[in-house]
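hey so u asked for the seq, here:
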Amino acid sequence: MSINKDVRRVTTNTLQKMKEKGEKIAMLTAYDYSFSGIIDAAGIDVILVGDSASNVMAGHETTLPITLDQMIYHAASVVRGASRCLVVVDLPFGAYQGNSKEALISTIRIMKETGAHAVKLEGGEEALESVRRITSAGVPVMGHLGLTPQSIYKFGTYTVRAKEKAEAEKLQRDARLLEEAGCFAIVLEKIPAELAGEVSKSLHIPTIGIGAGAFCDGQVLVMHDMLGINTEFKPRFLRQYLNVNELASQAVRQYISDVKTGAFPDATEQY
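ran it, structure tokens below
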């Protein structure tokens, strides 16, 4: 995984300049050293160490069970594999909702123990105190509005958010408040494309969409969904670029066959 040493590290300032120039931001999730290196070398702008690890790595139904220690393990692995992109780490459920002091303590652990560059947390007005406290300590914060998976039991569904006027107006207000509180970017998840475009135009900072249409300043997908590793999740907004599940299954079946028939190893594959 060779990296062009002339390529400078992507920073929050880089993303801001990209928005100002109209250059789209590409973000993907990663959870381990190997895939981090592949994604980074391919030229991704941002890797998100998402609490979606709870789903795709650990097999949980929601993002709620993953712990701070587990997020730190995944994030440290990702950082070791990425030499040029910005690495953002999700604050997991329970690591920041209690109060802003707890949020800062969790953030400091992530930054010191992983080497990551920023954290992400969900919520609008209710998260402002935590955002201010974390940014005042010098740590960049990415916000997250719309469908917020850590609140799935409150919503009761993964349907599109902010379709009604009142919720749309709250989302727009929350976006402005997050920007004012110091967020360097905001993820907009599963909201109407027109609303996402309005929010993106109203903010100085970049927006990153997932199921929020083409008018955001960038896009993010879960790596396991985009590569077709996970074949059960097929929402409208997902574009699958590869079917790793099928290719890996074929390779494993061929390996089993070669072992059973004695075709592997052959004379060139032994000492």
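The chain is about 40% helix and 15% strand. The first helix runs from residue 12 to 21.
lmk if thats what u needed
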